[in-house]
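Summary for the steering committee. One of the milestones for this cycle was to obtain a three-dimensional model of the protein with IPE bound, which we needed before selecting residues for the alanine scan. The sequence and ligand used are listed below.
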Amino acid sequence: MKPPQMPLPKHVAIIMDGNGRWAKKRHLPREAGHYAGMGAVRETVRAACDLGLENLTLFAFSSENWKRPKTEVGALMGLFRAYFRSDMDELVERNVRMRIIGHRGRVAPDIQQMIQDSESRTAPNTGMNLTFAFDYGGQEEIAAAAQELARAAKDGRLDPETITPELFATRLFTSALPAPDLVIRTSGEHRLSNFLLWQSAYAELLFLDTHWPDFDRAALTAAMGQFTARERRFGALDTLDSGAVA
Ligand code: IPE
Ligand code: IPE
Ligand code: MG
């Protein structure tokens, strides 16, 4: 008997890796790879909207990416500014709600302002949730949530015994989103690099060799199709097996 097909994922999260390698292959500076990567972001967002995806989260800059040379960090920040300026109208038109998850306080004040403006401008939108992980680190996020709960316990506002995974998750940046059911990483590395560590506990992981600037509508459609062929168990048995032992 053919196993039942999984429904399409509700939340796809992507580690957009390989801009540098894409550029190197073409004898271009790394910045050219990042620029091309912005084109892939645009195309992926459009495709995700057209496919009716409810939640798309893109890892744009990690809390560890500050360790890169100043010129590269500067170029990346310039691209974020350009993206906010050029793409916000289209996101509004497409009824997309945009959010940023990450530290916020470490980026330049004008970018902080752009983030705030874009979030409030798209807040009334009811279509796809588009989230950029920007100056984001999963361990930092978990530590901040633990700090907040510890503070509440210390002040007598919280009984430590009531801390459950569900309560903990409400203190994460992603509290408004469902957990990702599919995490994709492009460009061949098989690691999470501190991305959505808590939230990805039961995500399906898909590692692609494609460098991020080459990722497109067809790649997203194929990835979502692959997801539907997987069997998720969440620690239990599949329906047939559990039927047999019941
Ligand atoms: C991903 O591409 C973009 C960011 C991390 C900002 P990389 O810049 O990591 O590209 P590679 O991994 O060096 O090819
Ligand atoms: C992860 O990629 C961060 C982003 C895609 C924004 P990196 O290229 O920074 O990860 P490592 O250094 O290969 O682990
Ligand atoms: Mg990389």
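Key point for the committee: Residues 17 surround magnesium ion (ligand 3) (CB under 6 Å).
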